[in-house]
Amino acid sequence: MELRAEQLPLADYVRPFVGAQGEGNTYPGPSAPFGLMQLSPDTDKTNWDTASGYEYTDPTILGFSLTHLTGTGCPDLGDFLFMPQVGKPAFVSGMKDHPEDGYQSTFSHADESASAGYYKVKLQKSGATVELTAGERAGILRFTFPASDEASILTDLSHVINGGRWRVAQSRVRIEDGSTITGFHLINGWAKERYLYFAARYSRPFDSTEIISAGKPVLYNTYRFRSHNEAAGTNLQFFAKYKTRANEVIQVKVAVSAVSAANALENLDAEIPDWNFEKLLAATRAKWNRELSKIEIEGSPAQKETFYTSLYHAFLAPNLYQDVNGEYRGFDQNIHRAKGFTEYSVFSLWDTFRATHPLFALIQSQRDADMINSLLVHYDQSADHLLPMWELQGNETWCMIGYHAVPVIVDGYLKGVKGFDVQHAYEAMKTTAMNPDYDGLADYRKLGYVPDDHEDENVSKTLEYAFDDYCIAQMAKALGKTEDVNYFMQRAASYTNSYDPTSGWMRPKDSQGNWRTPFDAHVFGGDTNSDFTEATSSQYSWFVPQDVPGLIALMGGKEKFVAKLDSLFNAQQTDAFKKDLSANDLRGCIGEYWHGNEPSHHVIYLYSYAGQPWKAAQRLHQVVTTQYGSQPGSLCGNDDCGQMSAWYLFTCLGFYPVCPTSDYYVIGAPQVPKAVMHLSNGKVFRMTAENISDENIYVQSVRLNGKNWDSPFLPYKELKNGGTIVFNMGAQPSQWGTKPKPLD
């Protein structure tokens, strides 16, 4: 199997509408791989759950904005909305149930299509057809109008996906000439100080223009303004007005920059020097075919659609965050020029350290190095000398927990990613881990755990700090820093201090060492709500990836460990367990195992450590067939910048990075017949699953690089130079992998 992108149009398998029903957590609009420009229709901007702007079940489209998040649990972006109108132009969006009161329009999915790099829809109110395509920093909106004496294209600078909370602090629009405008806005949102600029060129000069500020026209020589060509304020709209013939096409080339309007214009002219929509679309699809070909599979059309849609999701973020001249806005809000690397933004590290970045380390090594450098310049520009927690366009959102830039850096280093200053990276990790002001770290270092009377989410923080400390120790070991190895490995064992042998779960306790009472390991709400991050104790108690054998010992040995794992999947969901979960969240639950959220992602693979990999195979098949797919609403939770998708990709290949930064992967059970992984070092790793079917889901035997392999662990050294892994699958559990050797 030596298929390459030129032979197989892999982008044809991408289904952009796949997302979690009712959460609007993905978007169907076009972008280049890892692009800053991410054009998309927005159906909502105030619903907190519609974090990426587009919800498949909404009846109306507000317009088409230039930037979007991908599957986050928090809304932002959605910058600079464009919307064609026919008739008297509206400058407010109106309501979904009364779209006639504003510029939003009803539409039908029958008149809508999307693919990698392309989107099209017909708007029922105006009769205009909208087509979108995009490159890295720039894109084209192509509007086909009916005949009208009152056609217009709105640019709403007040639009942002705000979840009903964020606001435009300032904005500006300027008419540069008869067919060009520029502007910017400053958003106080999830990212507290986010500047973004845009430039737009129109294929047809304006017949006339109008700027609206706070609901009033901007007129020359009044007491309010001295120009009708520019305005500043917090609520601005611009109208390009035309008389159009039937089926007249007007295109708008748009680009963005975090630095300046001048840079946005430079980005625009550098990336799209002409007016050839099809040329840009073809170039972007070629980029997607090239990136998607990094893993090639055999399988049914449905399997290919789900797989390549997942790979597409994994390659949407982090996003390019520098202009064509190398400039970017740094964490200190000053303008910097990237030297020797490409600046990226949007790091959902609590999610993506688990599988997304480990995937990048294997098949996106150069980008992973650039991303690591982006984390390091954030550290350099931080007033507190901290690596980012959840970075969004030059801002720290302080979202989630842990210091998970650490496993991203360490896993990259140990997997051969080149192109960053290793000593500087180690300094940044250690400095972050020793910061006394970081959430509960002072108590953690003193007591060996984060106490519940001093810090929220204390048990989760204890467990995740311990893992991050293990990662630092692995890099210290590689660098010969023996004293640091001993210190951070001691901290890595802190998970034991949160384990309550009486209840058998990780349990919060106060600074005096008293366990929280009352305590229920199976509920989100009540007394345990503030002690765990988006989870119950029954879900988080398994997060000891750095020392699963130690966790097995704490829980009483392999038999009791497996029985407790079984109880997680077989648990009867109580009303208390269900009360804080949406219907879609509950669809992602098997018992109390919640696949729709990241703390559970490694849990199924723990069966392999305990000598029952066949149970892992059973649950993996169940999740793959019920929680993923190629249709709208297929995902059971937020994709979280590619993590849900990366889990699926690794699982299809038959192995998973339970402990990123370790020198092994855990073998589960493959989900596709064949796969070829093109590693960044030029080597090729091939997976074959003989006899696989919907019934033959259990591993019977494994041959790794020509050798019989009875261990459920795949060493990195067996993968990094290329090779083969061959699974023989059957309909019944086997003895394969039931006697795992101790890990080094």
Total strands: the figure is: 38
Question: What is the third-level CATH name, the topology of one domain?
Answer: Beta-galactosidase, Chain A, domain 5
Structural class: alpha+beta
Based on the structure given, which CATH architecture of one domain is correct?
Distorted Sandwich
Which CATH C-level class of one domain is it? Mainly Beta
Strand order of the largest sheet: 6-7-8-9-18-13-12-11-16
| Count of helix runs | 19
Largest sheet: 9 strands, antiparallel
Overall body shape: globular
- What is the helical fraction, as a range of percent? 25-40%
Our estimate of the beta-strand percent is: 15-25%
Question: What do these coordinates show?
Answer:
The chain is an alpha+beta fold and 744 residues long. The chain has a domain at 15-290: Beta-galactosidase, Chain A, domain 5. The chain is 26% helix and 24% strand. It has 19 helices and 38 strands. Strands 6-7-8-9-18-13-12-11-16 form a nine-stranded antiparallel sheet. Strand 12 (180-188) and strand 13 (194-202) form a beta hairpin. Helix 3 (301-314) crosses helix 19 (643-653), helix 7 runs parallel beside helix 10 (458-478) and helix 10 runs antiparallel to helix 11. The chain is globular. The two termini are 34 Å apart.
Key terms for this structure?
single chain; 744 residues; alpha+beta; Beta-galactosidase, Chain A, domain 5; 9-stranded antiparallel beta sheet; 19 helices; 26% helix; globular; disordered N terminus
How are the secondary structure elements laid out?
Layout: E1 40-42, E2 60-61, E3 63-65, E4 81-86, E5 105-106, E6 112-115, E7 118-122, E8 129-134, E9 138-145, E10 148-156, E11 167-177, E12 180-188, E13 194-202, E14 208-213, E15 216-217, E16 230-233, E17 236-244, E18 248-257, H1 261-271, H2 277-292, E19 295-298, H3 301-314, E20 319-320, E21 327-329, E22 335-337, E23 344-345, E24 347-348, H4 349-352, H5 356-363, H6 365-381, E25 390-392, E26 395-396, H7 405-414, H8 422-433, H9 441-447, H10 458-478, H11 482-492, E27 499-500, E28 505-506, H12 537-540, H13 548-554, H14 558-570, H15 575-578, H16 583-587, E29 589-590, E30 593-594, H17 606-609, H18 613-627, H19 643-653, E31 655-656, E32 664-667, E33 674-678, E34 684-690, E35 698-704, E36 707-708, E37 713-715, E38 723-730
Parallel strand pairs: 34-38
Antiparallel strand pairs: 1-3, 2-5, 4-10, 6-7, 7-8, 8-9, 9-18, 10-17, 11-12, 11-16, 12-13, 13-18, 14-15, 14-17, 19-33, 20-23, 21-22, 24-25, 25-26, 27-28, 29-30, 31-32, 32-37, 33-34, 35-36, 35-38
